[in-house]
Design a protein that fits this description.
The complex is a heterodimer of chains A (780) and B (113). Chain A is α+β, with helices and mostly antiparallel strands and 780 residues long. Helices cover 53% and strands 13% of the residues of chain A. The longest helix of chain A has 31 residues. Classes of the chains: A alpha+beta (780), B alpha+beta (113). The interface between A and B is medium-sized, with 20 and 21 residues.
Chain lengths: 780, 113
């Protein structure tokens, strides 16, 4: 046994001096600091090793080698890093003496050391065992001792790793996912861990390890942008260690300004986007690598013909690709529709297609065409599944081609004890939470767009609510919302804090409080949207911002304000035909008039007319975006807003003939509708959006003369025709219809009366029958 | 001697009470978001389409350590400030405190306030 006194003879103070000297050179950067510091440590460790051999009475290093592994092995030692060391020996006697003579002086020098002693046989069994040990052997390099022994151990371990590439990669992947779930995403956390968070240095290590397992699938060191990113992370880590003197790799708010100044940034607000950009690059490289690896792990697939999924989008094998016959520039909705399709199904977008999006995706014209707006709402409506797709669009620079102002909130940190995410990610999260609440509001499209943009003002000078309100006026107009919707969207941004602040800060029992809120909110529709936005915003902010205490207070405020608003609500306006429509109705015959994407059908009313007309549109591949209709004195007028983005130009004259025939004899329609609805559906994958089931509400209180049926469900082929058919089947007449498709969500309202009596449907048995019939029809 | 004054008040009165106490020289307090019911009981209403039962009403709880000679003054300030005259205004009570220690300095009793 040796004593500590005998071993402290190797001078460690020089090492400390070198470290301080290197840290004094602030312009050194991350990689160069690490290299030079590693070299100094190497020199010192070599000296220790020689002394240890001498101490153990060995003449030379034959059969013993000291391997540096982990960060030390990669020459990435940061100021407070551990030294990871493995002493490998060929059954050398007195190895315990040598080991003691090595580890003790390192401890005494105040360095943390992660150490082990192994034989070459141990080393290979270690590789079969724990992943962490296997990974450390992959980064091993000899520091001192028997170089021949070192290379045989290192070669053997790499061979083990690559010859079992499949198992190696699967284990690596599992470990990554576990770590990501525990440490979050670096780019979006306000207190990220530069090593362990997703996008951090541990991910870089995994990229290297994957490259060793399957070099052709996972090349490493060929991407200069990745090299820049690694340098960014390393220099942040060096600065963090230098600033705090601690081993922790988490950039805490308290330390961020000092770390920023060390790196030459003004403050944390400048530092964090820089670190986030680096992390995003690492994540990007990681995801791309796993995409290739996963497809390799799944094995070769039979080549299949492309399946057309939507205009310009095809499914090729296991990925979505762009149909090259539809140039990206010709359809500004394409990038968003592709992302929505991927979010909805969990099927990834091909890498080549992503590159095409990055290069060629265009900004939409202003105001946006309806299908672009729909595509955005559709994507946002996919909820949590949309977040990675929105990230991808942002990373490709596509998102800011739609909303130029987005640039200002990218990776923008926020100083607030409640928040856990950067502004951009908070907005994605808020939209995802809002999607969960979309069935609670009548206009999910406004809720989703409001949630996505409510904090955009944080990227601009001045009060964020005021700035955001001004931005929304402009953006909502560009997006092509109508005047009423712009007013609603603007008030969502202006008042996004109103409910939360009033609920906790004002007397809810005081009528003046309620009157004030009601005056700001003005309508129950806006109130309902604000309540949902408040909830989504709070949940997305972090666990401190939302709990049952706040929810109860906000619920009370909403209930009281709604009661106040309903008390002074004017009677619901009744839909009336225009003068032009009255003129057409007076002719008392079937007429079809088309103007752009608007189709007006005037016809003598009959049971199931709406079902027939909408079924004809469906079998002619003309999806209905919105519809209104009413019936008066035996004549019905129905106005359809059609989605004309389909692959082929509709044949209008044939449609008219078919309508005339179908109204006379609808008997063959049902079979054709069923055929059309059967057209293949995409299989769902893991990670696909969770779609809520259809919901049918029947309300006999809303108006005096009719029963109101509200149907909320995901859009599909011929939904309107099926609901209208079910209502007709229950012997009810549709007096009025208002149907909307908002993104992928259908919001249809029917005012119906009992066929024979013309009165409300009040009998509980019939109400239930009506509800059941509709649900059954749309669930099939 | 030290007393602990505990008050359960309406949430929106918190800022006002805090300002009043600070004005009277009370230097620290602990605030918690709590839920409970007293004579006010719970209530049930509809919210977002569903029946919404509020069985516990949200309140704010204040805990304030004061020198025993100040107890009456502090209770009085809280009572006056947090009163709306309507049901659910809350309650205030005071208890004897056996010992107090300031962690950083080790000061004890009234010195630790």
């Amino acid at each position: 046994m040796v004593t500590q006194a005998q071993l402290t003879t190797v001078d460690a103070s020089r090492l400390g001096e070198v470290r301080e000297q290197l840290l004094g050179l602030r312009r050194l950067g991350g990689r160069r600091f690490c290299n030079e510091y590693t070299a100094a440590v190497d020199e010192w460790v070599r000296e220790l090793f020689d002394r240890a051999l001498t101490h153990a009475g060995k003449d030379g290093p034959s059969g013993v080698v000291l391997l540096a592994v982990g960060g030390y092995g990669r020459r990435e030692l940061c100021p407070a890093s551990d030294l990871d060391l493995i002493l490998v020996h060929n059954k050398v006697r007195d190895i315990g003496t040598i080991a003691d003579a090595l580890w003790y002086p390192i401890w005494d020098a105040g360095l943390q050391v992660d150490h082990s002693v192994r034989t070459p046989k141990d080393s290979t069994t270690v590789i079969e065992g724990e992943l962490k040990s296997a990974l450390s052997f992959l980064s091993a390099r000899p520091v001192a001792g028997d170089l021949q022994l070192a290379s045989s151990v290192i070669e053997e371990s790499r061979l083990q790793w690559s010859s079992h590439a499949r198992a190696s990669l699967e284990r690596l992947r599992a470990s990554l996912e576990d770590r990501w779930s525990r440490h979050g995403e670096l780019a979006f956390l306000l207190e990220p861990d530069v090593k362990l968070s997703r996008g951090g240095l541990r991910d870089v290590e995994a990229l290297r390890a994957a490259a060793l397992a399957a070099p052709s699938l996972a090349p490493f060191g060929e991407d200069p942008r990745l090299e820049v990113a690694i340098e960014g992370l390393l220099s942040a880590r060096v600065a963090l260690h230098a600033t705090t003197g601690r081993r922790s790799d988490q950039l805490l708010l308290d330390d961020q300004d000092a770390v920023a100044r060390r790196l030459g940034f003004a403050d944390a607000d400048e530092l964090l986007p820089h670190v986030a950009a680096a992390a995003r690059r690492v994540t990007w490289a990681t995801d791309e690598m796993w995409r290739r690896v996963d497809s390799w792990l799944r094995g070769p697939r039979r080549a299949t013909a492309d399946q057309q999924v939507g205009r310009g989008i095809a499914l090729r094998g296991q990925e979505f690709v762009l149909d090259l016959h539809v140039p990206l520039a010709s359809d500004p909705s394409l990038a968003l529709r592709l992302a929505a399709e991927s979010a909805r199904t969990g099927i990834p977008i091909a890498e080549s297609t992503l590159q095409m999006l990055e290069r060629d995706a265009v900004s939409p014209p202003e105001p946006w065409p309806a299908n672009v707006r729909d595509a955005l709402v559709d994507l946002l409506g996919c909820g949590r599944a949309a977040v990675p797709l929105l990230e991808t669009l942002d990373q490709l620079g596509v998102l800011s081609r739609y909303i130029a102002e987005w640039q200002a909130v990218r990776s923008k940190p926020q100083r607030n004890a409640f928040h856990r995410y950067t502004v951009d990610r908070h907005l994605f999260e808020a939209a995802a939470e809002a999607a969960e609440l979309s069935r609670d509001v009548h206009r999910p499209d406004l809720l989703l767009v409001g949630a996505l943009l409510h904090d955009l003002g944080k990227g601009f000078p001045g009060d964020h609510t005021e700035a955001g309100t001004r931005l929304m006026v402009d953006i909502a107009r560009r997006m092509g919302f109508d005047a009423d919707d712009i007013v609603t969207l603007v008030s969502l941004v202006r008042d996004h804090l109103l409910l939360a602040q009033t609920a906790t800060g004002r007397d809810l029992g005081d009528p003046a409080t309620i009157a004030k809120v009601a005056a700001r909110v003005r309508t129950t529709e806006t109130l309902e949207l604000l309540a949902a936005l408040t909830c989504a915003d709070s949940i997305a902010t972090g666990p401190l911002a939302w709990n049952s205490w706040k929810e109860t207070l906000i619920a009370e405020l909403v209930i009281r304000t709604r009661a106040h608003l309903e008390g002074e609500r004017p009677p619901a306006s009744i839909l009336e035909p225009s003068i032009e429509q009255r003129r057409l109705m007076a002719e008392r015959r079937l007429q079809v008039i088309r103007e752009g994407s608007t189709l007006t059908v005037v016809a003598p009313d009959r049971a199931g007319l709406l079902a027939i007309v909408s079924a004809v549109l469906t079998v002619n591949r003309l999806p209905v975006r919105a519809a209104t209709g009413l019936s008066e004195e035996g004549m019905a007028v129905e106005v359809f807003d059609l989605d004309l983005s389909g692959p082929s130009e509709p044949q209008w004259s044939r449609l008219e003939e078919e309508l005339a025939r179908a109204v006379e004899d609808p008997s063959t329609l049902e079979a054709r509708l069923a055929e059309r609805a059967k057209s293949w559906r995409l299989p769902k994958r893991a990670g696909a959006a969770r779609i809520a089931p259809p919901r049918v509400l029947i309300d006999n209180e809303a108006t005096p003369r009719a029963t109101v049926i509200e149907v909320r469900m995901p859009d599909g082929v011929g939904v309107l025709a099926r609901i209208a058919g079910a209502i007709a089947e229950c012997d009810c007449d549709i007096a009025l219809v208002k149907a909307m498709t908002l993104g992928h969500e259908v919001v249809d309202t029917f005012y119906v009366t009992d066929g024979p009596s013309g009165a409300k449907v009040t009998d509980p048995g019939r109400v239930e029958h009506l509800q059941r019939t509709i649900l059954k029809e749309v669930s099939e | 001697m030290v007393h602990l004054v505990t008050a359960v008040i309406k949430p929106f009165k918190l800022e006002e009470v805090k300002d009043a106490l600070r004005g009277a020289g009370v230097l620290g307090m602990t605030v918690s978001e709590v839920q409970g019911y007293g004579r006010q009981g719970g209530k049930s209403e509809t919210f977002r389409g569903g029946e919404y039962t509020v069985s516990f009403v949200p309140k704010v709880k204040l805990e304030i350590l004061v020198d025993s000679s100040d107890v009456d003054k502090v209770i009085d300030i809280i009572a006056v400030t947090s009163k709306t005259g309507k049901i659910g205004d809350g309650k205030i009570w005071a208890t004897d405190v056996d010992r107090v220690l300031r962690v950083r300095t080790g000061e004890a009793g009234a010195d630790a306030l």
